[in-house]
Design brief:
The chain is of the alpha/beta class and about 300 residues long. It is about 55% helix and about 15% strand. Strands 3-2-4-1-5-6-7-8 form an 8-stranded mixed beta sheet, sandwiched between helices. β7 (about 270) and β8 (about 280) form a beta hairpin. Bound molecules: guanosine-5'-triphosphate (GTP) and magnesium ion.
Length: about 300
């Protein structure tokens, strides 16, 4: 990972990485070391169930005599963590439907993703599907104006489905490469609002049957284990293809990524780590695990 990203994520790496590294420098591994590791994983929001899965596997290796010194533990943990991560399939042309609870970072991510795609030389169309909040469209309009992307917007209170319909029409007509649809935040417990998302997806499928839809769920990394419940329910009502973990700059708890993968089985696609337009990174499992375990 580039150093400027590592700096932005210093909270994340300093808390877990420093402590776990001290285990790796131990000359011998014993039950006490495994207990310490268990505590660190729980502290990092890895979640009880996922932590137990990791520990059971390490215990087995310990019993078999393959975990002798700190460096053996590092290697074994690295393997376990990597095995847990699903990889997200990045495609070039598609529609991104952004969903998530209020304030989770959808609109910020919409702008960051658009910027990233523009930098890659793609033609980008954004749709302000959040017609609920007055400021929502303005927020996106400000970003898009600055970076020179096109935006389809509706009026406040307009049926979000009709904005999405317009956006699909504009996408067809404008020959853009990517369409990014921002939606209003919603609590996963509001059944009618969850059904609305499924309806938005049906509209897109009907308008653009040949284009792949990628539904990305934005989760606030600082919410820890609460994110799991959100992910489960969003995934039930509108199949989620990938997770965007936002506000990774504000957390020291990078273990949540493993819990999401292990328990919900959805890959992490992007990590968002600040309020600046370029503070976004495609998630790379190998790199993430390596950085997390190396001081
Ligand atoms: N530090 C930090 N702040 C972020 C990040 N992403 C978003 N924010 C901030 O979090 C707040 C909410 O972000 P939005 O992008 O508006 O969230 P949203 O999901 O669109 O919110 P609603 O539309 O109200 O549901 C804003 O103040 C953002 O500046 C991030 O990665 N790091
Ligand atoms: Mg928003």
């Amino acid at each position: 990972m580039f150093s400027f990203i590592k700096n932005s994520l210093s909270n994340l790496y300093s808390s877990f990485t420093t402590k776990v590294s001290s285990l790796f420098s131990r000359a011998t591994i014993d039950q006490e070391t495994l207990k310490d590791l268990e505590r660190l994983l729980i502290e990092a929001d890895t979640g009880y169930q996922t932590t137990q899965t990791i520990l059971q596997s390490l215990q087995k290796k310990f019993q078999q005599g393959t975990l002798k010194e700190g460096q053996d533990l590092k290697k074994a943990l690295q393997e376990e963590l990597l095995q847990m991560l699903y990889s997200f399939e990045y495609k070039t042309t598609q529609i991104y439907l952004l969903v998530g609870i209020n304030g989770s970072g959808k609109t910020t991510f919409a702008a960051k993703l658009a910027y990233k795609m523009l930098q890659e030389g793609k033609k980008v169309l954004l749709a302000a599907g959040d017609t609920f909040r007055a400021a929502a469209t303005e927020q996106l309009a400000l970003w898009t104006e600055k970076m020179g992307a096109e935006l389809v917007k509706g009026k406040q209170g307009q049926e979000p489905g009709s904005v999405v319909f317009q956006a699909c029409e504009a996408y067809k007509a404008g020959k853009q490469d990517v369409l990014i649809i921002d939606t209003a935040g919603r609590l996963q417990t509001k059944i009618n609002l969850m059904q609305e998302l499924a309806k938005l997806k049906r509209i897109i499928q009907k308008q653009l049957p040949d284009v792949q839809i990628c539904t990305l769920l934005t989760l606030d990394a600082m919410l820890g284990q609460n994110s799991l419940e959100q992910a489960k329910i969003f995934n039930e009502s509108t199949k989620v293809d990938g997770i965007v973990l936002s506000k990774m700059d504000g957390t020291g708890k990078g273990g949540i990524i493993f819990a999401i993968n292990h328990e919900i089985k959805i890959p992490v696609a992007f990590i968002s780590f600040g309020e600046k337009i370029d503070q976004l990174k495609q998630f790379n499992a190998q790199e993430y695990v390596e950085q997390l375990l190396t001081e």
